[in-house]
Amino acid sequence: MTLTEGRWATARGEIVLERGSEPPSSGPGARLTSGGVTLTVVGIAESVGESADAWVVPEQLTALAGGRPAALQMLYRLTAAGTADEVTAGQKAVTAAAPAGSVTGTRSYLDVRETARESTAAFVPFVTAFALLGLAMSVLVIGIVVSGAVGAATRRIGILKSLGFTPFQVGRAYVAQALIPGTVGAVLGVALGNVLAVPLMAEVAEVYGTTEVLVPVWVDLVVPAAALALVAATALALRAARLPTAKVLRVGPADGGGRGHRIRGLLGRLPLPRPVTLGLAAPFARPARAASTAAAVTFGALAVTFAVGLGSTLVAVKADGDPDRGGDVTVRTVALPRGNPDTPGGAVPLPGKPADPAAVAAGSAGLPGTDSVYRTARAQLDVAGLKGGAPLVAYEGDTAGSRHTMVSGRWFGATGEAVAATRFLRATGVRVGDAVTLSEQGRTVRVRIVGEVFDLGDEGMTLRTGAASVAALRARHQPADFAVTVTAGIDAAHYAERLDAAVRPLRAEAAVTGESRSSVIRAMQALIVMLTLMLVVVACLGVLNTVVLDRSRRPARCSRRAGRPGRPRLGRCGRSSGGEGFAPVPAPSRRDTVAACLKSG
Length: 601
Fold this sequence. Notes:
Layout: E1 2-6, E2 14-18, E3 31-34, E4 37-46, E5 54-55, H1 58-65, H2 84-97, H3 109-119, H4 124-151, H5 154-162, H6 167-208, H7 217-236, H8 245-249, H9 258-268, H10 274-285, H11 287-320, E6 329-332, H12 357-365, E7 370-383, E8 386-397, E9 406-409, E10 417-421, H13 422-428, E11 435-440, E12 443-453, E13 463-466, E14 481-486, H14 492-503, E15 509-512, H15 519-552, E16 573-576, E17 579-582, H16 590-600
Parallel strand pairs: 2-4, 8-13, 10-12
Antiparallel strand pairs: 1-4, 2-5, 3-4, 6-14, 6-15, 7-8, 7-11, 7-14, 9-12, 10-13, 11-12, 16-17
């Protein structure tokens, strides 16, 4: 528990509100009235376990209860609570020491921690996958850019070597030149990452009720260090600094040496156009550059494939995680007005009173083409050991047509049985086979959990059972919905039109069951699209950079006559055994190179 504003309640007439239950404009200093008692808000607290909506001193609780039966909530610290078995042993010891039947529910901090982790678990896998792809693309682009920048200065490196620079000195100079912009980029990247991540994680913590987490200091140190180490390693792997000076200074094509000539000669014998043979020979002449291009294309294709597969998987998971999407046709007992009431002949809004469920059930079951019909009604009930209660969906009728995916156990089939979602079970500490106590206005019933259903609705906190199991609570249910399954061979759309015409006079409406739209799924899909576009752009930039490097190092033009004044004499065109090519160009002497360098400043 964390006190986020104000102070703790120390006297009668003071109250501390839970941040998630804080009414609007009720910060410290506000005055609230409950049961004829006026209270002053002195603080705002945040409880990860959400054990209460507000806190007062014990003397204040009696006046707030107003004579109603109060349930006592005790919080224990156990001497050994590192594992689930140790917590279970402590719970059993407390239950054994209390009067028989007085403990209606328990909850472990391990369940609270697991619930907090599950709140953000949906985003973690695909964000991690995209992060790994982004890191791989970053490494690739850094290598391409640094190696391209250094490789473009091959002739200058030769001049430096001719002046007496050693390969180590040349490499050290270019490492320093690469680290200067690399350091600026790494520092800006870390700063921008913190600026974007800190408020985002604070908002996530507030939305999901978890603890706010900052970017660890070691991340801010390791990430730029790793990026700069990659830049330095790429610059150190400078091939031109290790080549002989004459070979670096030669004027002519940088085609990769004899291996490129041989492969080009072999491919030139094939009955293919010259651009095709040259393109096929390029990867053998420059394997490193070809590998980087292939890697960029591979990562781009991987990002697109992963994004499409992940998006379709999310849609499938959302469909399977919606047990309320049962039947082929859905009938709602509150019909919406049709047409525009402001125009002549437009529809007049129907009364807000829902239709009689019995009449709707009879009309649906009597329509030809109906296979099965069941009704669902929702309510909010108190659950022992769970603050704020949980949603309840009560089923009545033939549930054979319901669509549900069981994680474990089975679907309920008798009075007193229920199924629950995974998060509900972990939040309450209940397992399949245990019983849970439900209450409403002082009335209580106990239902036994017989199955764990895959349910993503209502944050995974919905309890599902038969209407007869909770009839004793006399809960106030919301307007009911009917799920209708049509017989095989019947068109669902045509059946929905006939059923809608039959139930419209009853103030109900029928439509083909559609997929529910989730804001979380839409947000995840939007994030997938954004990250995919970023990775594809990075991949395209990597390919573009390699193409520009190849174009910037075009071979010298051949000539059959002497070069013009101020230009070295080129070798003449000739034919090799593999087709047309360029004769090797004589390398200038070291004396001429030094003289030209000194003359040009």
